[in-house]
C-alpha cells in the first residue's frame, strides 16, 4: 500500500498537450475515481502511472519513490482492464498465477496466493476451467485475481466493468467495494458510470481537457441541497 503523488504532471503527444500541469495527491489506502468526458485524458493518466506511457513533464511518486523512469514491472502496480485478456489455452488457475510464475517466487507461495485470491473473489470452484467456459462476470473476476495475487501497492482500474450488462455491473461494483474494504490497496479507478463513482470513491476527480475541473467526496460533488 502506498500514496501516489502527481506533481505538475504533463503529457504531450508531439506538440499537443493532453494533460496540463496536473497536481494530485492520493493517500495510502484511498480509493480515487477519475471521471470526465471521452478524450479528457483519463486513460493517459492511468497509463503514465502504470509506466505504459512516458511522462512528458513533472514528477510521479509511488510511495516515497520517484517513479517516472521505473519500468512497469518495477512499479509494484497492478492494472485491471475492461477486456480481460485471459490466455485461452491456460486454466483459470494458471491465468491467475501467470505473472507470479514469471518471477522466482516459490510454488507453495504462489499456490497460497492463488487460493487466497480465489477465495476473496468466490471463484475457487472455477480454478480448473478454461476461459471459454466462463461468463463475462467470471472472466472479470479472474482478471482481478491476477491483479490481487501480485499484492501490489496500487491497483489501477481502466473501466473494468464497461463490458458487462447492468446486473453484473451492479454485482461486480459491490465485489470491488468489498475487495477494497478487505485489502485496502490504494486504488485509482476510471469510469463513465456515475453510480460506480458514487459507490466506490473516497474522492472523485473530474477531469476536463487534461486538467482537474473538480475534486471532492461523492457527497461534496453530487449532493444537491
Ligand atoms: P480518455 O481516456 O479520457 O477517453 P485518453 O487519455 O484516451 O482520454 O486521451 C486523451 C487525449 O489524448 C485525446 O485527445 C486522445 O485523442 C489523445 N491521445 C491519446 N493517446 C494518443 C496517442 N498515442 N497519440 C496521440 N494522441 C493521443
Ligand atoms: P479509451 O477512451 O477507452 O481509452 P481510446 O479510443 O481513447 O479508448 O484509446 C484507445 C487507444 O488508442 C489508447 O491506447 C490510446 O493511447 C490510443 N489513442 C487514442 N487516441 C489516439 C490518437 N489520437 N492517436 C493515436 N492513438 C490514440
Describe the structure.
It comes from Paraglaciecola arctica BSs20135. It is built from 7 helices and 10 strands. With 225 residues, the chain is of the alpha/beta class. The strands form 2 sheets. The protein has a 6-stranded mixed beta sheet, with helices on both faces. It has a 4-stranded antiparallel beta sheet with strand order 2-1-4-5, with helices on one face. Helix 2 crosses helix 3, helix 2 packs parallel to helix 4 and helix 3 packs across helix 4. Bound molecules: adenosine-5'-diphosphate (2 copies).
Quick structural summary:
This protein is an alpha/beta fold and 225 residues long. Helices cover 34% and strands 27% of the residues.
Bound molecules: adenosine-5'-diphosphate
* Overall pLDDT metric: 93
Structural class: alpha/beta
Give Rg in angstroms: 18 Å
DSSP summary: helix tally: 7
Helix content: 25-40%
Shape: globular
Number of strands: 10
In terms of per-residue confidence, which ranges show pLDDT below 50 for 5 or more consecutive residues? none
How would a crystallographer describe the biggest sheet?
6 strands, mixed
What is the distance, rounded to the nearest whole angstrom, between the alpha carbons of the first and last residues?
36 Å
Succession of helices and strands: EEEHEEEHHHEHEHEEH
Tell me the strand percentage band: 25-35%
Strand order, largest beta sheet: 6-7-8-3-9-10
GO molecular function: ABC-type transporter activity; ATP binding; ATP hydrolysis activity
Keywords: ATP-binding, Cell membrane, Membrane, Nucleotide-binding, Translocase, Transport
Protein name: sn-glycerol-3-phosphate import ATP-binding protein UgpC
GO cellular component, one term: ATP-binding cassette (ABC) transporter complex, substrate-binding subunit-containing
Amino acid at each position: 500500500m502506498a500514496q501516489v503523488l502527481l506533481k505538475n504532471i504533463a503529457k504531450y503527444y508531439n506538440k499537443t498537450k493532453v494533460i496540463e500541469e496536473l497536481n494530485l495527491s492520493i493517500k495510502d489506502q484511498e480509493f480515487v475515481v477519475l471521471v470526465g468526458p471521452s478524450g479528457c485524458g483519463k486513460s493517459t493518466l492511468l497509463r503514465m502511472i502504470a509506466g505504459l506511457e512516458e511522462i512528458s513533464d513533472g514528477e510521479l511518486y509511488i510511495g516515497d519513490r520517484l517513479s517516472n523512469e521505473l519500468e512497469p514491472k518495477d512499479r509494484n502496480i497492478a492494472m485491471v482492464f475492461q477486456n480481460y485478456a485471459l490466455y485461452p489455452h491456460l486454466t483459470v488457475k494458471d491465468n491467475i498465477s501467470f505473472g507470479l510464475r514469471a518471477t522466482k517466487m516459490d510454488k507453495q507461495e504462489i499456490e497460497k496466493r492463488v487460493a487466497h485470491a480465489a477465495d476473496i473473489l468466490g471463484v475457487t470452484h472455477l480454478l480448473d476451467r478454461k476461459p471459454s467456459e466462463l461468463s463475462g462476470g467470471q472472466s472479470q473476476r479472474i482478471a482481478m485475481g491476477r491483479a490481487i495475487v501480485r499484492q501490489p501497492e496500487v491497483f489501477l482500474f481502466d473501466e473494468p466493468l464497461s463490458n458487462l450488462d447492468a446486473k453484473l455491473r451492479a454485482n461486480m461494483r459491490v465485489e470491488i467495494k468489498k475487495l477494497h474494504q478487505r485489502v485496502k490497496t490504494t486504488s485509482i479507478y476510471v469510469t463513465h458510470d456515475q453510480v460506480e463513482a458514487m459507490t466506490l470513491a473516497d474522492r472523485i476527480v473530474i477531469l476536463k481537457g487534461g486538467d482537474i475541473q473538480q475534486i471532492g467526496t461523492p457527497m461534496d460533488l453530487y449532493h444537491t441541497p
